[in-house]
Design goal:
The protein is built from 9 helices and 9 strands. The two termini are about 25 Å apart. Helix 5 crosses helix 6. By secondary structure, the protein is an alpha/beta fold. The strands form 2 sheets. Strands 1-8-7-6-5-3-4 form a 7-stranded mixed β-sheet, sandwiched between helices. Strands 2-9 form a two-stranded antiparallel ribbon. The protein has one domain: Alpha/Beta hydrolase fold, catalytic domain (Rossmann fold, 3-Layer(aba) Sandwich), CATH 3.40.50. The protein is globular, with a radius of gyration of 18 Å.
Length: about 300
């Protein structure tokens, strides 16, 4: 296994990321970023993880385990050397987290991220699979709504968090801004989601990928203002994301939606859910439950 390099965080901003003035400018800038040494190192990580993910994929076709996974905040039986973090804050730890995968994928993409959240103390981590043959993002968003209502009923929590990779982020955002899902979701974390579409969608002319093209009618609907949205969005995007072209389209700028964009350097699309630095950033963000995003719990490094 290739050792995972640290993802350099270049920018964290509640304001929209700067977008290229033209499509050509954006693509050229992305190609320049891909030519760096750091991008080459992460490309090796991407290849290794892609190979591993292929072997895990069949296990991900099974229905995700239902119900709570136990109280991960109990640490007396664990050695500090086997953990990198500890989350404190029982209320925050119990808030359900739903993991939502991307196009032609399943919940196995979150194998390492889910483990990382559990080891940091989060006790209710769920996942769902939507149909691989989904032809309409709206249909998947309706399925997501049903899944969230089931989780709310099972756990007794009125609001949950969502961590979504790639297409999953677009599905979740449609649910939040067009189906009233902001009443049920406190925080949405997106990892390489094509919020403004991706040119790669032109390569596969299906009903679903047509919706993901920049400037499509669906994208125009999705990005309409959503005044008063109660859900905060944290959008991770990488300047070398090979699936999102131009890469900056994975950042979010939507009127009415409180958003923090976190830019990473040199990270590939499939690597976003596996980097320890990203998992830690997510864990830190999900302990912030008040309306202003101020910490109500902490994520603390543990030493031997």
């Amino acid at each position: 296994m290739v050792e995972q390099p640290a993802a350099e965080v270049a920018d964290e901003d509640s304001h929209p990321a700067s977008r290229p003035r033209s499509l050509r400018q954006g693509v050229c800038a992305q190609l320049r970023q891909m030519a760096t040494v750091q991008a080459a190192v992460f490309a090796a990580v991407e290849v290794v993880w892609a190979t591993t993910h292929i072997s895990l994929y069949p296990f991900g076709t099974r229905a995700p385990r239902r119900g709570a996974v136990g109280h991960g905040y109990r640490i007396e039986h664990l050695s500090p050397l086997k953990r990198s973090m500890l989350v404190s804050g029982v209320t925050e730890l119990g808030t359900p987290i739903l993991l939502l995968h991307g196009l032609a994928d399943n919940h196995s993409i979150f194998t390492l991220l889910r483990r990382g959240l559990l080891r940091r103390g989060f006790s209710q981590v769920f996942a769902m699979n939507y149909a691989v043959r989904t032809k309409d993002i709206r249909t998947a968003a309706a399925q997501l709504a049903e899944e969230i209502e089931t989780i709310v009923e099972e756990t007794g929590y009125e609001r949950i968090h969502i961590v979504a990779h790639s297409l999953g982020g677009v599905i979740a955002r449609y649910y939040l801004t067009r189906l009233g899902g902001d009443d049920r979701v406190h925080t949405l974390v997106t990892l390489g989601a094509p919020h403004r579409g991706t040119l790669l969608a032109h390569a596969v002319p299906t009903a679903l990928t047509r919706q993901l093209r920049p400037g499509s009618p669906f994208m125009a609907e999705l990005n309409q203002p959503s005044p008063g949205c109660r859900t905060r969005v944290i959008a991770f995007w990488s300047d070398t994301d090979e699936a999102i072209i131009p890469a900056v389209n994975a950042s979010l700028d939507q009127e009415g939606v409180p958003t923090t964009n976190i830019r990473l350097r040199g990270v590939g699309h499939l690597s976003l859910p596996i980097l320890p630095s990203v998992v830690h950033r997510i864990a830190t963000s999900l302990t912030q439950l008040d309306s202003e995003g101020a910490p109500t719990a902490s994520v603390t490094h543990i030493s031997a």
